[in-house]
Write a structure and sequence with these properties.
Elements: E1 2-14, E2 21-38, E3 43-44, E4 48-50, H1 56-70, E5 77-84, H2 94-109, H3 116-129, H4 138-143, E6 149-153, E7 158-163, E8 169-175, H5 183-186, H6 194-205, H7 209-224, H8 229-238, E9 242-245, E10 252-257, H9 261-267, E11 273-277
Parallel strand pairs: 3-5, 4-5
Antiparallel strand pairs: 1-2, 2-5, 2-6, 6-7, 8-10, 8-11, 9-10
Helix pairs in contact: 1-2, 1-3, 2-3, 6-7, 8-9
Length: 291
């Protein structure tokens, strides 16, 4: 049996490290997995993962968790082909996207069709179990599977709300070359400014994602030592309506009207990688040829 699953990158609106509540919006930058399940041996064959920097340990854990959930009765030999161009450890939720795509493809190969929330919970459980994420990043995984923005309680892997993003806007990304550390190693840095963290969460819960993104970025920049004040000013002059650090960074995201994307792109540093992305139009991504 064959199953295909994809999940997308996302940008942060609220980092969940301070209070356990996170918010994110998916963007069109996918990770895609094809899963093949056959035979009668309950084993997982070696996964083909590109690039190799997408953790094979994470892939194996996501596949095993999905098999345990959806295919425990019949076993089988699972082979995976994973493809993702999302930069690893740059704040764009590559781990959540890869693990969610693996979980979804594996479930579909087993004949199941789990909801986005079910898939996101598997990705969150795997993130915590492998030490990839301190909170599990349920918000990041869910944002990569649905349309619009999500606000979640990552301690309970529960959705708290959603918010709409204007389709006349899109995202401009500056992705520096250096990776960020794993979130468990820096979690304590994010507990120093609870008032700012609460401001970001309250704004997200009320649907004011622009205010939430601003407050969150101030907190993350202080915690991680990024000096992006001049960058915020430059993209605002070019037409951006919001900007901020995504995840733990160092990626910087600016949101702007589609007709101003080129101007905002030119305002970003020449170093690193620069690109634009539309909001995620996540929908039914099943293989039209069937499983």
């Amino acid at each position: 049996m064959r199953g295909v699953g994809s999940a997308r990158a996302a940008i942060s609106i609220v980092n969940a490290l301070p209070l356990g509540v996170g918010a994110a919006v998916g963007i069109e930058w996918p990770a895609r997995t094809t899963a093949y399940l056959d035979g009668d041996r309950p084993t997982i064959a070696r996964a083909s993962v590109r690039p190799r920097s997408s953790s094979t340990r994470l892939v194996q854990a996501a596949a095993r968790a999905s098999l345990d959930r959806f295919a425990a009765s019949h076993g089988g030999r699972l082979r995976l082909v994973v493809r993702s161009s999302i930069p690893v450890a740059r704040g764009l939720k590559s781990s959540s996207a890869v693990s969610a795509s693996v979980a979804l493809a594996t479930a579909r190969a087993a004949g199941a069709e789990p909801s986005p929330a079910e898939v996101a919970r598997i990705a969150a459980e795997v993130g915590r179990a492998t030490g990839t994420s301190a909170t599990g990043a349920f918000d990041d995984a869910l944002a990569g599977l649905v349309q619009g923005g999500v606000v979640t309680d990552n301690a309970r892997d529960a959705e708290l709300g959603r918010f709409e993003v204007d389709r006349r806007l899109a995202v401009v990304l500056w992705v520096p070359g250096r990776p960020h550390p794993r979130s468990p190693t820096v979690r304590r840095r994010f507990t120093r400014e609870p008032a700012l963290a609460r401001r970001a969460v309250d704004a997200a819960l009320s649907g004011d994602w622009i205010e939430a993104m601003s407050a969150n970025s101030s907190l993350v920049e202080r915690a991680m030592g990024y000096r992006y004040a001049a960058l915020h000013e430059a993209v605002a002059r070019a037409g951006a309506v919001a900007s901020g650090v995504s995840g733990l960074g160092p990626t910087f995201a600016a949101v702007a009207p589609i007709d101003r994307l080129r101007r905002v792109l030119r305002a970003l540093p020449r170093s690193g990688r620069r690109r634009t992305a539309r909001w995620s139009l996540a929908g039914d991504d099943r293989d039209p040829r069937g499983r």
